[in-house]
Write a sequence for this structure.
C-alpha cells in the first residue's frame, strides 16, 4: 500500500455520517441562538435588576448597594465569557458540519 492510499483510508475512517453532520449543524445553530438571543436578554435583566435593587431596600440598607453592583459586574463578566464561548463552540461545530471530518 502506498502512502497516498494509507492517507486516503485514514481520512475515510474519520468521515462523519450525514446524521452526525446534521446534528452538528443543529447544535451550531443552537449555540448561535444562545449567543445572540439569550445572553443579551440575561445581560439586560441583570442590569435592570440593579435599577430596582433586586428587591433590597437600598434606602434603609446602604451597605447593600455596593454588593448589588459587585454582583451585577461579576454576573456580566460571566455572561460575556459565555457569549464568547458560545461563539467558539458554534464555529467548531459548523466547521465539523461543513468539512465532514471528525476531529
Amino acid at each position: 500500500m502506498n502512502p497516498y492510499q494509507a492517507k486516503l483510508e485514514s481520512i475515510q475512517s474519520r468521515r462523519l455520517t450525514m446524521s452526525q453532520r446534521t446534528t452538528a449543524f443543529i447544535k451550531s445553530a443552537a449555540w448561535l441562538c444562545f449567543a445572540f438571543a439569550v445572553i443579551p436578554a440575561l445581560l439586560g435583566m441583570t442590569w435592570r435588576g440593579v435599577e430596582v435593587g433586586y428587591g433590597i431596600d437600598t434606602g434603609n440598607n446602604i451597605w447593600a448597594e455596593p454588593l448589588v453592583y459587585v454582583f451585577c459586574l461579576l454576573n456580566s463578566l460571566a455572561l460575556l465569557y459565555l457569549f464568547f464561548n458560545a461563539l467558539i463552540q458554534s464555529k467548531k461545530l459548523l466547521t465539523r458540519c461543513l468539512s465532514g471530518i471528525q476531529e
Q: What stands out?
A: The CA atoms of residues 24 and 56 lie 44 Å apart. The chain has a mean pLDDT of 85. The two ends are 25 Å apart (CA to CA). The longest helix spans residues 64-99.
